Amino acid sequence: MDNGKTMIKKVNHRKSIKEFWNEQSKRQRKIIYMLLGIIGITIITILICILLIFGNPILCQTEYCQTAANQIRNFIDESQEPCDDFYRFACGMFTRNFSNERYDIQSVRHLMQEDIQLDIKKMLQEAPDNTDNPTFNLAKKFYKTCMNEKAIEQQGLRKIEKIFKEIGGWPILEGPDWDSEKFDFIKAVRILRNNGINTDFFFNISVEVDREKLDRYILVIHDKFYSPAEVSPNSKKDFLDYMIDVASQFDATNANLWKDQNDVLELMLLLAKISKESNKSNQTNLYNLHTLPELQHEYPTIPWFEYIQSIFGTHVTLHFDDIVSVSEPIYLKKLETVLRNTEKRILANFIGWQTVQNLINFLPSKILDKAYAFLSKVNGKFDKTPRWRMCVEATRKVLTPAINLAYVDRYFNESMRANITQLIRNVKTEFKRTLLMSDWLDEETKRRIVKTLVSSVEKIFSVTDIVDILEENTAYDDVEINENKLLEAVLHLDFISMNIHYSLIRKPVLDQWVKTQEFLSGLNIQYSPIENKLKFPLGLLRGIYYNDNRPDYMNYGLFGTVLAHQISHIFIEAKAYHVEEPTSNRQRLYSWWTPLSLSRYIDKLECVSNQYSRYEIRELNNIRTNVLITRDEDVADLAGLKVAYAAYSEQEWRYGRQPTLPDLKYTPKQLFWISSALQFCSKYSTRYIRDKYSSNRYHHSPNEIRVNGPLRNLEEFAYDFGCHKDSYMNPEKKCSVW
């Protein structure tokens, strides 16, 4: 108390940090240390991530990045604004550097396939090596034999003339001395097949997997497509002159040569006509199963058992209960009438002519040059195929698996395959996330699609494939090639190839993808809905499409967009297979769209169709693509870009910003968009474009539209390039699918 007033003193109960710390037990102090450490590490990690993602990226200066930068500089035209016309910006230099004076088309895809051919040429030119597979050394020797043009000229026509004599002669050469009584069609087929000559003169018989019973092979009969069914009088005269010129090189003294060859040409045009008519009216979905007795009853003109056994050769025995599918029954019915009404002489001449055509690349120049002269005359401009290219293609045809195996050995390794597989799975994961977040798909449709996506298999190549090829290659162990006798070498290797193919009818079903030419040089991912399998060609895993040693934005922009495009087709086409009977391999196709999801999808499709219908083909005034034909591909282009970009962005978020390329001012995400466009850079002649799109049969929009069309619908692209609203590449109205 003081002067009657009470003084209240504020007491400070706050403890100092030191007092607080002294009151803590040893265990409590340890916990505090740990919490502070975790908080500190978290803050540092966040700061590092921010710096990696939003800070200045590192510059990549490796040899591979220099190469990648040079590739991009050879494509882009920096005088063009990306937001005004991205195709002209991304492909301007490419289109400027190529002309169509010699070729109707110049494109990245064509250049990629050319590079693959050059790779194979380089491999085949190497000296035989004991470390290589023996069959690949055989391929090298065959290529060398094919390139020996001097020996081809010296050999002349002796071998093929000898074969003609074995089948009773080629009437065109023998004139009136030819004896029709000595000609027997089945016997001729047997002799030609035993000589290694393909005998699919009137139809083709192949061994294929039964599409409804996947665990067995069946025989399939296809029509023989001769084109065109109708020709102008001038074209007909030119081709007939060519046929007569070729026959004359065999020293034919036949006074009726013109009539004989004209009869052959008329038969060829008739076969083309019935093939065209059959394809128009075929309503049987190319799947009509018969046993051999049923086939004989349905098409009695041809002795089927004898004919098929003749093409099987002595390596496979035909059974009466073997299953045969007739893919074009109307063609076969009409063919019976043609064969019944055609004289033996015409049939024999037709077989002789087709045999010459099949083997023309391996005959002397006096024959081959006639073919080039004809092609040059009818096409206006035609460059003679370089001999090396012809020989590479011939070697691939007869020894495809051995070359594929050698190519894998030279250019691929397990590390590369693991990285590619991871990229594939990242894109699939992003697709799954996109599907699950889609608000227009109902839950049932999502469940079906995601189930198919998650269970899909990636097929690149495997140890099993390699073992299978090595086992198959043993069929060539005893083959000897005489480097002075090319035609004999061709026929011997063709004979073995046919034996291998027809022997499949008695073997368990295995995936043959890695043994095909498409596996090595194809640039399209194949999807098998029956197997739910994505099959990847090696062509997409090299060159501009993929490189293990360059930044990921290029791989996602090129290979990733192709992959996402193909995956989107699985959903756009809405098809999947399911096992019809649990105890069998019989499968049926079904659609997974529910009515509600399908209705919503059609609404989205309409947006894309309406937008693309306004795009004109630049080379052709007032001509537009048919959006009813191209719209599924247009939607796949849009989906592929969106998903691949999201997959790359996820990788950037996880692992940090990728290094940029030397002497290029673009960010990693801008380089993703630039990379995505490179695959479509092309230069077409006006004639080529007009022929391609005036027919309304081509399913892809022109490449310029395939670049600009999807990008104009993606906010991410506009943001990364800073395109202002209502610029050409950033319109206000956009379409969205996924």
TrEMBL record:
Gene3D superfamilies: Collagenase (Catalytic Domain) (3.40.390.10), Neutral endopeptidase , domain2 (1.10.1380.10). It holds the Pfam family Peptidase_M13_N. PROSITE patterns: NEPRILYSIN (PS51885). Keywords: Hydrolase, Membrane, Metal-binding, Metalloprotease, Protease, Transmembrane, Transmembrane helix, Zinc. Coiled coil: none annotated. Residues 82-458 form the Peptidase M13 N-terminal domain. CDD domains: M13. Its main location: membrane. Its cofactor is Zn(2+). GO terms for cellular component: plasma membrane. InterPro entries: MetalloPept_cat_dom_sf (IPR024079), Peptidase_M13 (IPR000718), Peptidase_M13_C (IPR018497), Peptidase_M13_dom_2 (IPR042089), Peptidase_M13_N (IPR008753). It is found in: Cell membrane. Belongs to the peptidase M13 family. This is Uncharacterized protein.
